[in-house]
Design brief:
Elements: H1 4-31, H2 34-56, H3 63-68, H4 76-94, H5 96-117, H6 129-146
Helix pairs in contact: 1-2, 1-4, 2-4, 4-5, 5-6
């Protein structure tokens, strides 16, 4: 029962990704530009996060803290931009279900690899038969969704 709220929130987060990508693809068509669609998505996201920081009264991190953070820890936005840009282009071509199925499969393969090696500061979770079977089932799901 204690996991119910986190599980429901994770499912809602997953649903929000689908809605975001469909809206971004529609915006691309309306603006006739994948770049400006992606920019708009990020701009609205920045405004929302700034408002959330204000509502929660989050202090701005000190410059000294920012300077001590490794260069690669700042690169999340680059991967977000790659994701948004590709999604804007691929959702209309593949459809939302196929895109998300492939997205989840890619996330799972990357996740078990990162966990297995303990990359980026995460604790190691070695790849075992159960995890490998889970990845295989996801890939099988992608094949079934795409049919």
């Amino acid at each position: 029962m204690q996991l119910l709220l986190p599980v429901v929130l994770a499912v809602l987060a997953g649903a929000s990704i689908v809605v975001q990508q469909v809206l971004n693809a529609n915006l691309r068509t309306a603006l006739n530009s994948a770049v400006w669609s992606g920019f708009t998505s990020y701009f609205v996201g920045v405004v929302c996060m700034a408002l959330l920081a204000l509502v929660l009264r989050e202090p701005v991190p000190a410059a000294g803290v920012a300077l001590r953070i490794s260069w690669w820890q700042w690169s999340g936005g680059v991967f977000g931009a790659i994701f948004i840009g590709l999604a804007i282009l691929l959702v209309p071509a593949l459809g939302a279900a196929t895109f998300i199925a492939l997205l989840v499969a890619g996330q799972m393969v990357a996740s078990v690899t990162i966990d297995h090696f303990g990359w980026m500061g995460l604790p190691r979770h070695p790849l075992d038969l159960t995890r490998l079977l889970g990845v295989a089932l996801l890939v099988g799901g992608v094949i079934l969704v795409r049919r």
